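PROTEIN DESIGN WORKSHEET
SECTION A - STRUCTURE
LENGTH: 142
TOKENS:
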């Protein structure tokens, strides 16, 4: 377990409630669109994580993420190799108890590529999948 602020972790500009409210349909759909288009579903070998990395010009979007999913952590801004970006991550208990159930509830609506990435992540990190997810499996590699 990390103690204190992690290197590069951005302090939230808002105070987060202990229990985050349920996402409304727009917020859920917008979050899914961001994750499907730009996100990474993987882990560090010990625990699963969902990561979103985008240019610093999207800071307002990252601040929105901090409001709707305060369990995530925002890191940056980073500036190296000619790139400037923020990185947002959800892992551990918040991933397992909050984000993962939302993602798997709509697993059937994702395309084969995203479904394969999520299924591979579930397999590697022993995350639960809906019973019908295995039957929908894809031959595409994550």
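SECTION B - SEQUENCE
RESIDUE ASSIGNMENT:
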């Amino acid at each position: 377990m990390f103690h204190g602020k992690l290197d590069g972790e951005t302090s939230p500009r808002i105070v987060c409630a202990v229990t985050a409210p349920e996402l409304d349909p727009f917020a859920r759909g917008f979050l899914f669109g961001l994750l499907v288009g730009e996100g990474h579903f993987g882990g560090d070998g010990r625990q699963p994580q969902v990561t979103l990395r985008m240019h610093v010009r999207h800071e307002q979007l990252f601040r929105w993420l901090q409001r709707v999913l305060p369990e995530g952590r925002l890191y940056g801004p980073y500036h190296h190799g000619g790139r400037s970006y923020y990185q947002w991550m959800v892992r551990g208990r918040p991933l397992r108890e909050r984000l993962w159930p939302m993602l798997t509830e709509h697993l059937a609506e994702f395309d084969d590529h995203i479904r394969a990435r999520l299924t591979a992540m579930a397999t590697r990190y022993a995350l639960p999948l809906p019973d019908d997810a295995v039957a929908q499996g894809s031959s595409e590699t994550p």
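SECTION C - NOTES
The chain has five helices and four strands.
The helical segments are 25-38, 59-68, 92-105, 112-125, 131-135.
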